[in-house]
Design goal:
The structure holds 2 protein chains of 2 kinds.
Chain A: E1 3-5, E2 10-12, E3 17-35, E4 47-48, E5 54-55, E6 58-59, E7 65-73, E8 83-89, E9 107-112, E10 117-122, E11 131-140, E12 143-153, H1 156-163, H2 169-185, H3 193-203, H4 210-220, H5 224-231, H6 253-257, H7 284-289, H8 325-329, H9 346-349, H10 361-366, H11 385-427, H12 436-476, E13 501-508, E14 517-522, E15 529-532, H13 548-569, E16 575-580, H14 587-596, H15 606-629, E17 644-652, H16 658-670, E18 676-682, H17 695-700, E19 702-704, E20 709-713, E21 720-724, H18 734-750
Chain B: E1 3-5, E2 12-13, E3 23-29, E4 48-56, E5 59-64, E6 76-78, E7 94-99, E8 109-116, E9 129-134, E10 139-145, E11 154-163, E12 166-176, H1 181-188
Parallel strand pairs in B: 1-10
Antiparallel strand pairs in B: 2-12, 3-7, 3-9, 4-5, 4-8, 6-7, 8-11, 9-10, 11-12
Classes of the chains: A alpha+beta, B mainly beta.
C-alpha cells in the first residue's frame, strides 16, 4: 500500500533498507543532512552531498539530475543519528531554472528494495525557493518514520543549511556547488555504474558471494580512477581522479543515466522509468516476460506435481485417514529403509494431475499449505533488477552445486557400503554354504539401490524446483544476461548504462543436462578471456570436431560472438574492440564485426600491424597508469577517451616477435586494472616454443572453449561444470541486427 | 522446555506433538577474557569453536567448522568464527544451523562439538554455555553450562540422528580434550 503524503504528514516505515526516488522536471541536486537526538547537525561530515556522496547507510548521486535514487540503509546509519533530512536544491551553475516555481513539482517516493512504494509525496506550492527539505526520516521509539516536510528556502542551499544550524553553511554550500559544477563540466560522462556496482555487491551479503566477490574487490582496488571516487568520497572535487573526460554527450542523457544505485535494467530505454510496473513491484517486468504471463504457475506441459512423492496425499490433507502422521510431518527424512515403495520421482512428476506445487519443501512442511512460493524472476537481494537477477542466477548456481554434491556424496557412500558388505560376505566362510552368499549380496545391492533411489528423489525434487525457477528467470533476463535466442535481443536497444555482468555461456552438470545456469561474469572484466582453439575437448572426443581447422573456426566465431555481446551491452563509446589477425585467417569469422563497422580499426595484419596495435595499447596502459598513480588523471592528453578496450588476438603467436610477446604479457598483467582486456583465440601448443615464459599469461585468462567442455569449477564444491559457449541460433540475423544498431549508435556518438 | 544438562547426561528429545525437528541451531557463547596490561593488549583471548560432523553409517562424510563454514550439500551452515567471545550475557557467539530437511539422505547422524582452540579448559572460561535451539520456533531444547565444567578443553555436545525417518536429538555432553574436531573423532565414534 502506498501512502500518499501531504505536507506535514508522517508515516511509519516498515523497512530500513530503502530507496528514495526523486523525479523533478529539471536537474536538481539531492543531498541529506543527519541530525542527532536534539535535531542538531553536528558538522559538515554529517551532510551527504555530491561532493561527499557516501556516508554509512546513505548514498546520493554525485551530480545534479532530474531523476535520483538515493540508497538508504537506516540500520547502517550511526546510532547517534536520529534524523535524516532529504534535501533538493536547484544547481546555480549551468543556466537552469533558478526557482522551483519554474519547474514541475518534484515528486518523491520512498520504496522498499523490491520496488514497492511505501510513501510518495509531491512537493507542491513552491515558488521562489531554490532549495527544499523534501522528507525527514526520523527515529521514534526505535522505529523509523518518514515525514513530508516540503520546507522551501528562497536563499537556496546556504539558507537551508544555515537553518539546520550547520557551522559554515556557505562554505559547505559552495563545496556542493563546486562538486556539481565539476560534475557538469565533466559533461556528463556517463556516471560510472561500474563504480557504484563495484561497491554495491560488496554490501549485498551471501548470494553475491561467488568467485566474483573476490574479483570485484580485486577489481575496484586497482581501478583507482573509479575507486577514488567512491572510496574517498569526502575529498571535494572527486572527479579529479576521473580520467573520463568524454565529450559529445547530449546534456539530456545524464538525466536518465544518473539513476544512482539502481542502474537500471539494460535494454530498457533511458526515457522509461526503470520500473514500468510499479504496482506489482519486484515482479512487474519479469512477470510480463514470463511465458504464461499468468499469476498461476502453469508451465507448458500441463500440470506437474513437484511435491515429494510421499508427500502428495499427506501434505494437503494432513488428517487424511490412513496416513501415518510422523511421515507426513517429515517426509523428507527418508533415511530409514522402511519405504521400499518410494516410487522413482519421475513417475509423479509426469502428468499426475493436480496443481503445480512450487513451494520449497522446507516451507511446505513448516507452514501449512497456504502460500505457494512460486518462483519469481528477480527473487533475490539487490539494488536494481539487474543486480537482483544476477544474484538470483548465482543463487541458483550455488543451489545446483550443493544439491548435486549431496546426491554424489550419497551415491558414493552407497557404493562404498555395498562393496564393504559384499567383501564381508565373501570373507565369511559360512556364507559359502548354499545360496547364502548370493542372498547377502542381493541384500547389499538392494540397500545400495534403495539409497541411490532416495538420493535421486531428493535431487529430482530440487532439480524440478530449480528448473521451474530457471523457466521464469531466463525469459526475464536483460540482453546482457540473455541467450542469443532470447526474444529480448529482438527488442534490443543500445543501452545507456553498463550492465552489472555479461553472460559468457551456459553451465550444466551431467546429473541435470537440461538445467542450464547462465555463466555471468562481472563487468568491467576482471581478467581477459582465452578461447582455446587447441586441445580437443575431453567430453566430446567422439564428436566430429576432429578437424583442427574446424575448431579454430569455431573458436574465432565464439570470440566474435563474445565481442559482439560486449559491444552491444556497453553504451556507445564505452567499449572499443581492436583485432590482431596477423595472417588474416580470421577474416571470415570477423566479417560481422568488420561489415557492421563497429571495430576501432580494421583488423591488424602482419608483424607491423601487430607491433602497431600492441604499442598503442601498451602506451595507453602506461599513460593511464602513470596518471592514476601520480594522482593526476587531468594530465591525460585532451580528447583521450577512457573507454574499455578489448583486444582480440587471433593465431597467437603468429606474427609476434619477442618484443610483441612481452607487450602482450604486459597488457595481460596491467591492462585489466585500467580497462584494457585481452580476448585470445589461441592454441597453447602453438606457443609451446616459449616454454614456461607464457604460463602466467594463460593462467591470467579465463579459459573458454568453442565447444562444450567440462573445465570450469564452481567456487563452493568444486564440481567440474560443462561449459557451453553461447550459440547464435542457426540462420538467425540477431547478431547482424544488434551490430547494426551498435554501429549507428557509435556513429551518432562520435559525431 | 529447556533441559539443563550436566556432563555425561544423555536424554532423547522429541517434539511434544510427536512431530520431529526440522531445523536446529547449536549456539555457543562465552565471556571474553578480561583485558590485561596497561593497554588491554596482553589479554589471553579465549577462542572456543563450534563444529558439526556429518556421519553416514559411522563414517565422517563432511565437517562444518570455522574453516569450512557450509557443508558441501548446503544443509549445515556455520555463521562464522568468533575468536574472542562476547559479553557473557547469554547471547550466542557462534552458531551452527542445520536444516534437517536438506540433509542428504545418507547422512544419519550429526554430532556437535565444542573445542577450546586457544587451550583454556572450561574451568578457566567464564559464562560459557552451549545450547540447542529448535530453529522453527526458537525454543531451547537443551543447554549445557560449560564454565567450571572441569579440566577439559572440548565437549561432545549432542547429536541429531534419524530414528524411523524422523530426526531426534540426543544430548551427549561427553568431555574430551582437543584443539579442533579432528582430535575428537575417536571420542565421538563410541557415541554413534
Amino acid at each position: 500500500m502506498t501512502a500518499e503524503l501531504v505536507r506535514g504528514q508522517n508515516h511509519p516505515l516498515s523497512e530500513v533498507r530503502l530507496e528514495i526516488r526523486i523525479s523533478a522536471g529539471s536537474p536538481v541536486v539531492a543531498a541529506a543532512t543527519l541530525g542527532d537526538d536534539s535535531g542538531r547537525v553536528r558538522g559538515a561530515e554529517w551532510v551527504v552531498h555530491p561532493g561527499a556522496p557516501v556516508l554509512p547507510g546513505l548514498e546520493v548521486s554525485r551530480q545534479a539530475a532530474a531523476e535520483h535514487r538515493l540508497a538508504v540503509d537506516l540500520a547502517a546509519v550511526p546510532e547517534a543519528v536520529h534524523r535524516v533530512d532529504v534535501l533538493l536544491a536547484l544547481p546555480t551553475a549551468g543556466g537552469g531554472p533558478a526557482r522551483f516555481g519554474a519547474v514541475p513539482a518534484p515528486f518523491v517516493a520512498v520504496t522498499a528494495l523490491d520496488g514497492t512504494e511505501l510513501v510518495t509525496y509531491t512537493i507542491t506550492g513552491l515558488d521562489a525557493e531554490s532549495a527544499v527539505i523534501a522528507l525527514e526520516l526520523y527515529r521514534r521509539q526505535d522505529a523509523w518514520k518518514v515525514r513530508a516536510v516540503g520546507q522551501g528556502y528562497t536563499g537556496g542551499l546556504p539558507e537551508l543549511l544555515t537553518h539546520q544550524h550547520l557551522p559554515e553553511p556557505h562554505r559547505l554550500a559552495t563545496a556542493v556547488e563546486e562538486a556539481v559544477t565539476q560534475g557538469l563540466a565533466r559533461s556528463i560522462a556517463p556516471p560510472p555504474p561500474r563504480t557504484q556496482h563495484g561497491d554495491r555487491p560488496r554490501r549485498t551479503p551471501a548470494r553475491a558471494a561467488g568467485p566474483d566477490r573476490s574479483e570485484s574487490a580485486v577489481a575496484s582496488a586497482p581501478r583507482a580512477a573509479d575507486g577514488d571516487r567512491s572510496g574517498q568520497a569526502p575529498a571535494f572535487g572527486p572527479d579529479q581522479a576521473d580520467p573520463a573526460v568524454s565529450t559529445g554527450h547530449v546534456p539530456t542523457q545524464p538525466v536518465a543515466s544518473h539513476d544512482g544505485p539502481a542502474s537500471g535494467v539494460p535494454g530498457q530505454s533511458a526515457t522509461q522509468p526503470p520500473y514500468p510496473d510499479q504496482s506489482s513491484p519486484g515482479r512487474g517486468a519479469p512477470q510480463a516476460a514470463r511465458p504464461d504471463g499468468s499469476g498461476h504457475p502453469a508451465p507448458a506441459g500441463g500440470p506437474v506435481d513437484y511435491r515429494h512423492p510421499r508427500r502428495q496425499s499427506a501434505a494437503p490433507q494432513p488428517t487424511a485417514p490412513g496416513e501415518p502422521v510422523p511421515q507426513s510431518a517429515d517426509p523428507g527424512a527418508s533415511g530409514t529403509p522402511a519405504p521400499a515403495a518410494v516410487p522413482p520421482p519421475s513417475t509423479p512428476t509426469a502428468p499426475a494431475g493436480g496443481p503445480v506445487d512450487y513451494r520449497h519443501p522446507r516451507q511446505r512442511s513448516a507452514t501449512p499449505p497456504t502460500a505457494p512460493a512460486q518462483p519469481v524472476a528477480g527473487d533475490a537481494t539487490g539494488w536494481s533488477m539487474d543486480e537482483r537477477l544476477y544474484n538470483q542466477v548465482w543463487g541458483m548456481f550455488e543451489d545446483l552445486a550443493r544439491t548435486t554434491a549431496a546426491y554424489r556424496s550419497a551415491v558414493d557412500f552407497a557404493e562404498s557400503r555395498m562393496e564393504k558388505e559384499i567383501d564381508q560376505v565373501l570373507a565369511d566362510p559360512r556364507s559359502r554354504i548354499g545360496g547364502r552368499a548370493e542372498t547377502a549380496r542381493e541384500a547389499a545391492r538392494a540397500k545400495h539401490t534403495q539409497l541411490v533411489d532416495q538420493a535421486r528423489a531428493a535431487l529430482d525434487r530440487d532439480l524440478d524446483q530449480l528448473t521451474a525457477e530457471s523457466e521464469v528467470v531466463e525469459p526475464a533476463l536483460p540482453p546482457a544476461y540473455a541467450r542469443w535466442d532470447n526474444p529480448v535481443w529482438h527488442g534490443y536497444r543500445v543501452p545507456m548504462e553498463i550492465p552489472m555482468a555479461v553472460r559468457l555461456g551456459d553451465l550444466h552438470l551431467p546429473e541435470s543436462p537440461s538445467l542450464r545456469i547462465p555463466l555471468l561474469v562481472r563487468l568491467p572484466l576482471q581478467r581477459g578471456l582465452w578461447i582455446d582453439s587447441g586441445r580437443l575437448p575431453s567430453v566430446f572426443e567422439d564428436e566430429p570436431f576432429a578437424d583442427e581447422g574446424e575448431v579454430r573456426r569455431l573458436a574465432m566465431e565464439a570470440a566474435v560472438a563474445h565481442a559482439a555481446r560486449l559491444l552491444a551491452v556497453h553504451p556507445p563509446g564505452e567499449f572499443d574492440v581492436h583485432v590482431i589477425d596477423p595472417a588474416g585467417s580470421g577474416a571470415r569469422a570477423l566479417a560481422p564485426l568488420v561489415h557492421a563497422d563497429v571495430l576501432a580499426g580494421p583488423p591488424a595484419a602482419g608483424a607491423a600491424g601487430v607491433a602497431d596495435v600492441l604499442s598503442r595499447l601498451t602506451q595507453r596502459v602506461d599513460l593511464v597508469q602513470m596518471a592514476v598513480r601520480g594522482g593526476a588523471p587531468d594530465a591525460l592528453p585532451p580528447g583521450f577517451d577512457t573507454s574499455e578496450q578489448l583486444l582480440i588476438v587471433n593465431d597467437f603467436p603468429h606474427g609476434f616477435d619477442d618484443r610483441a610477446v612481452t607487450q602482450l604479457r604486459y597488457l595481460a598483467d596491467e591492462g585489466p586494472a585500467v580497462g584494457v582486456h585481452l580476448l585470445m583465440v589461441a592454441d597453447r601448443e602453438d606457443a609451446a616454443a616459449y616454454g614456461p615464459l607464457l604460463d602466467p599469461l594463460w593462467r591470467s585468462l579465463l579459459r573458454l572453449t568453442p565447444v562444450p567442455d567440462d573445465h570450469l569449477a564452481d567456487p563452493w564444491v568444486g564440481h567440474a561444470w560443462t561449459y557451453e559457449p553461447p550459440a547464435v541460433p542457426q540462420g538467425s540475423q540477431v547478431l547482424q541486427l544488434v551490430l547494426t544498431q551498435v554501429a549507428t549508435a557509435r556513429r551518432d556518438w562520435n559525431r | 522446555m529447556t533441559v539443563n544438562l550436566t556432563k555425561g547426561q544423555a536424554i532423547s528429545l522429541q517434539k511434544n506433538d510427536g512431530g520431529s525437528l526440522t531445523a536446529v541451531r547449536m549456539g555457543l557463547g562465552w565471556q571474553a577474557a578480561p583485558r590485561r596490561g596497561l593497554f588491554g593488549s596482553r589479554t589471553r583471548e579465549i577462542d572456543l569453536d563450534a563444529s558439526a560432523v556429518l556421519f553416514a553409517g559411522k563414517q565422517p562424510v563432511d565437517v562444518v567448522f570455522f574453516q569450512h563454514l557450509v557443508s558441501d550439500d548446503g544443509s549445515v551452515r556455520h555463521t562464522g568464527d568468533n575468536l574472542v567471545g562476547g559479553a557473557g550475557q547469554g547471547g550466542d557467539d557462534e552458531s551452527i544451523l542445520v536444516d534437517l530437511e536438506r540433509v542428504p539422505v545418507h547422512i544419519d547422524q550429526i554430532v556437535f562439538t565444542v573445542n577450546s582452540f586457544t587451550g583454556q579448559t572450561f574451568q578457566e572460561v567464564q559464562n560459557a554455555f552451549c545450547r540447542l535451539v529448535d530453529e522453527t520456533n526458537g525454543e531451547e531444547l537443551a543447554r549445557y553450562t560449560l564454565a567450571g565444567g572441569g579440566n577439559y578443553t572440548a565437549q561432545i555436545m549432542a547429536k541429531v540422528h534419524r530414528v524411523n525417518g524422523a530426526w531426534t536429538m540426543t544430548a551427549l555432553g561427553a568431555p574430551a580434550n582437543g584443539r579442533t574436531f579432528q582430535d575428537l573423532i575417536p571420542v565421538i565414534l563410541p557415541h554413534l
